[in-house]
Each structure stands twice: as C-alpha cells, then as structure tokens.
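FORM 12-B: Structure-to-Sequence Request
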C-alpha cells in the first residue's frame, strides 16, 4: 500500500510493518516500481528509512532451532555491519542478515554454539542489480547454516541450536537497539519472507 506508511504482509498473517525515517516518523514516499520481477512495488530505504514490524507476536521471528529469512535485495548496505534485515543480532541475542566488515554479506546468529556465528564470505556486489538472498538456520539434519544467492549455495557452516531470543522488533533496513533504531543500510528490499 503506497498511500500510507503501512507495509502490508501479503502472507495473511497480519504482520504488517510501518515505514519510518531516521526521526522515527511514519512516511509513505519510499515505494518504488523498481522491482526484481518488473511488477508490484519495492521499498527504497535510502535516506535512512526503515520498516518496523510492529506486531504483538514478535516471538514469531525469534528463530528458534530452524528458520529461513529470504528477500530480494538491491544495493549492499552503505557501511560495515549494517543489516538488510535484523531481529537484534547483537550482544548475544537475535539474528541479522547484513553487510560484514570486509564488505561482503554475513548471516549472524546469536545463541547456538556460543559467539555470534558470523558466517561471511566476500563477494563483489553490483548495486544496480537485484539479488535473491536466503539464509537458513537449521538446514539439512538441523546442524547447518546456509546462505543462498540467486538460488545457488553461497556459503555454509556447521552451527546448530536455538537462537537466543529477546523482545527487540523485526526491522528491515536498520537495527532495533534499546528503544532506538540505527545502523541504517540505505538499500532496496522486496518480497521479504520468514519461514519457521
């Protein structure tokens, strides 16, 4: 819906989001016809915009022992460690699909096997191109994490166990941290999906 700040959940689960600017004000001007499929609309999060999934069922997105996060993305986040999509993913809690310090993509999970489990691999990104990213925690027999780019296995590692949950919100294009939103990625997103 590009007439107001609501970012509609088309799955039927009513996990709608609100499009916001860096002042945490609702905005409606970031819906664009630039999409990976040529139809519908994407969200342009440039200018420090982000989407907050403001549902009462935040634990839906905690991850548990198995989940997949998938999205069409365009543009690498403009600075290191900024997320395309996050559910905290810092200080021992949550997860993120984000840019890593060396400029490539990383899937960060907190909780299983200790540490943040940054699964990273450098690559060259074309900021004019759409890519489909999918990150899987608990793949195969439940012991693997995998990242796919455009349907091809990009990287994998052995890491299993439950994601350490917390009450932070699911955010597209930024990270929720103690009642504030920062680490804006300034990218485009389309068709974000979460499976558990």
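FORM 12-B RESPONSE
SEQUENCE OUT:
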């Amino acid at each position: 819906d590009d007439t107001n700040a609501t970012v509609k959940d088309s799955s039927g689960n009513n996990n709608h989001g609100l499009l916001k600017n860096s002042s945490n004000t609702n905005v409606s001007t970031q819906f664009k016809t630039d999409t990976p499929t040529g139809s519908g609309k994407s969200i342009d999060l440039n200018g420090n915009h982000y989407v907050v999934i403001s549902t009462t069922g935040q634990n839906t997105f905690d991850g548990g022992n198995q989940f997949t996060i998938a999205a069409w993305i365009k543009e690498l986040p403009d600075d290191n460690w900024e997320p395309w999509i996050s559910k905290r993913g810092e200080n021992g809690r949550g997860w993120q699909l984000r840019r890593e310090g060396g400029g490539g993509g990383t899937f960060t999970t907190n909780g299983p096997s200790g540490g943040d489990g940054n699964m990273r691999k450098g690559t060259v990104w074309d900021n004019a191109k759409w890519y489909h990213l999918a990150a899987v925690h608990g793949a195969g027999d439940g012991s693997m994490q995998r990242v796919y780019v455009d349907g091809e296995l990009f990287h994998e590692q052995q890491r299993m166990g439950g994601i350490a949950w917390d009450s932070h919100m699911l955010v597209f294009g930024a990270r929720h941290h103690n009642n504030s939103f920062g680490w804006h990625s300034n990218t485009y997103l389309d068709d974000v999906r979460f499976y558990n």
